[in-house]
Amino acid sequence: MGHGLSSVPSGAAEVTDMLGGEAIARMDLPLAEASGLPNVAYTSEAWQALERRRLFARRWSFAGYVHDLQDPGDAAPDDLAGMPIVLVRGGDGAIRAFHNVCRHRGATILEEPARGLKFLTCPYHAWAYDLEGGLRTRPHFHGGDRHDMTGRSGGGPGLMPIRTAVWHHWVFVNIDGEAEPFEDFIAPIAGRCEGYDFAATGYAGSLTFDVACNWKLALENYIEPYHVFAAHPRLHSFVPMTEREPSKCDGHVMWNFYRFRAPEEGRGVGLPYFPRLDGELMRRGMWFVAVPNFAFEIYPDHIATFIASPVATDRTRERIDVYLVGEAATGPQYAQQRATLFDMWRDLNGEDLGIVERLQRGRLSPGYDGGRFSPYWDEAPLHLSRQIVKAML
User: Looking at the whole model, is its pTM more than 0.85?
Assistant: First the structure.
């Protein structure tokens, strides 16, 4: 008890009506007696819309990649849980986020990544905005050939800005502008990664997967080690269950680590390690999840982010991005080692796809009521459910 879910705040009737008071109360029980989110949280469009407003919009959410925004004028659109946003590197080198809608009639301005832009121009009536979001021109605004040229002094409604933060290779946004300082949000992760020089790494490539499951099932699967022995034979051989620990919870962050006996191909062989690693980190793998949507793993020789983006109640786009140390990121002399590493991630994630899709199909059964948990392994999946409901309430 004591997780605060049973004491429902005022204004939370919508959440309580969808989940049911009994289901919320069960989430508040000790782990051995508790249940997780009920089926409606994985199948309801109304619930997904509520997640958009109350979870993704109110928290610091992962939004994009610095490696997509290398130079001034580079821009990358994204849908954050269905909300269209655009990331832009300005002429001053700063990365900014805006709502990706024209202030005239609300058309999305950018649909595909772009490089070297001077302006963000809406295709509907050619309203043009500068890289800092200011409105610059409105053609024929006052009649034929009577243009509104706002100039550098500004004027007229610019793009709506979004609170933005950059941490190493990644861009985060807070849609409603009311979240805690970003430094506080990232602190539980940053404090545990002090031995790694992130600046020594570069982008090496991506993998994407379209999965027939709710985004939360992909994330729940990512944070629990209990399924390793049944679903991941190679990973289990690398670090058996007897040498694994349950995942830890630190507020909105869940994390874990393991120590492997010896490196293998795809996990520590043939690629350069982070500089100045101490002896313990030379044989350690760690992963982190920050609610709602940022996850990554770090090893002696690479970082791999895992982003599960909701597409529909039963559809998720998974993306894995890999970062390697020094020349290993792009150097031709490391091409084979990179290929081996990407094969490992492709195979490992592929082993999970059928499982999470089974989980989604199971959420259509009235015979499932939120599940029962292992009192040793399952604190993190239950904690994720609690974190989501707290945010929604």
Answer: yes
